[in-house]
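for the recovery benchmark. tokens below, seq after
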């Protein structure tokens, strides 16, 4: 059983604790799902999560608007990741893919949110390009004004839910100024004419990912989110909310690895005694527990700070994401070592965690990028 004592920390309110208990019970009953057909599994997960109300925190309720509760997002991602990495992915992309609409969308644009919160539409966040991943300001995709419309041309890659999304938030260069100040954000339906799936991308932990091609895709001017040139600010604002939740997913993976390791060392005998009695093994368990708790403190500090009304938590979210994902990799690596051959046997939970964790150190800002972000804030504050 996963350690639940962190829920007693002062970062949380009673409704967060109730959520954690209720979702954990739901996960135990419904997860994991069969991952053989990843696209079908993601569609099933989005539908299940929406049907049972778990997607409601991913976007604003247009009937009763209020800020996104980042602690709820983090608790949900941590809990889902502990049970099924693909379930966490399905939940997370519903939030990331609609974040721009929650924060900056017009009432007309926000009509999509009722569908995504109910699991009746799948969303995607199309930011990265073949030559523009971490360096967003180097974006090459263009959006050219044509009367009352825009024509979008170029490519996006590593797009989560690419190929199955009903809705894409797409960032493109509109040219108001050089670099980051010349980018804009658009809402686009998944069946838009001229939008094609150029390539499906397979990775070590299967998720629906794709490279998208845009050939003069026509969207109305009303598809523009915010003002021309607001794209970079919109993208960074969305990531500011959701970046700490990536750390929460990593935390969920790490907690599961620790739980499995505790079970293993208590049950497995070595040299005539349980592994848990060996001091070296105890040292590994202690290091894992320390990394888990330290990561949780950073994650929920960032989430609490945002929920308390901070305009930006760039520094706190970067610290949480960097530490939690890097340390989760360490925790899971120790779990593999403690499991011996079973730790690398295909289909074993620890083996799947080892594959799942690696991508989290790359997407939504690679670890090295987070170090740059943190350093700039620390040096600037000095």
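predicted aa per position
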């Amino acid at each position: 059983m996963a350690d639940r004592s962190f829920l007693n920390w002062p970062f949380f309110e009673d409704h967060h604790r109730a959520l954690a208990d209720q979702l954990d019970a739901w996960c135990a009953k419904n997860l994991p799902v069969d991952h053989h057909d990843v696209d079908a599994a993601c569609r099933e997960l989005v539908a299940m999560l929406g049907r049972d109300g778990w997607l409601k925190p991913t976007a604003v309720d247009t009937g009763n608007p209020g800020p996104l509760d980042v602690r709820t997002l983090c608790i949900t991602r941590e809990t889902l990741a502990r049970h099924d990495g693909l379930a966490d992915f399905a939940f997370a992309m519903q939030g990331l893919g609609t974040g721009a609409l929650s924060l900056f969308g017009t009432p007309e644009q926000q009509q999509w949110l009722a569908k995504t919160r109910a699991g009746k539409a799948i969303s995607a966040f199309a930011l990265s390009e073949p030559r523009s991943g971490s360096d967003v300001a180097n974006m090459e995709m263009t959006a050219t004004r044509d009367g009352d419309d825009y024509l979008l041309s170029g490519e996006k890659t590593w797009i989560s839910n690419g190929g199955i999304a009903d809705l894409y938030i797409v960032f493109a260069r509109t040219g108001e100024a050089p670099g980051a100040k010349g980018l804009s954000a658009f809402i686009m339906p998944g069946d838009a004419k001229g939008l094609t799936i150029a390539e499906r991308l397979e990775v070590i932990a299967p998720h629906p990912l794709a490279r998208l091609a845009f050939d003069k895709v026509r969207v109305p001017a009303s598809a523009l989110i915010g003002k021309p040139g607001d794209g970079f600010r919109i993208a960074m604002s969305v990531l500011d909310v959701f970046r700490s939740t990536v750390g929460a997913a990593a935390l969920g993976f790490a907690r599961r690895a620790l739980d499995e390791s505790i079970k293993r060392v208590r049950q497995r005998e070595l040299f005539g005694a349980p592994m848990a009695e060996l001091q070296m093994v105890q040292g590994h368990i202690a290091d894992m527990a320390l990394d888990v708790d330290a990561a949780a403190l950073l994650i929920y500090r960032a989430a609490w700070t945002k929920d308390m009304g901070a305009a930006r938590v760039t520094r706190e979210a970067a610290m949480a994401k960097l530490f939690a994902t890097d340390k989760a990799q360490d925790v899971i690596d120790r779990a593999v070592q403690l499991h011996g051959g079973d730790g690398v046997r295909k289909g074993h939970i620890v083996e799947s965690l080892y594959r799942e964790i690696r991508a989290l150190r790359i997407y939504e800002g690679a670890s090295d990028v987070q170090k740059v972000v943190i350093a700039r804030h620390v040096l600037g504050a000095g």
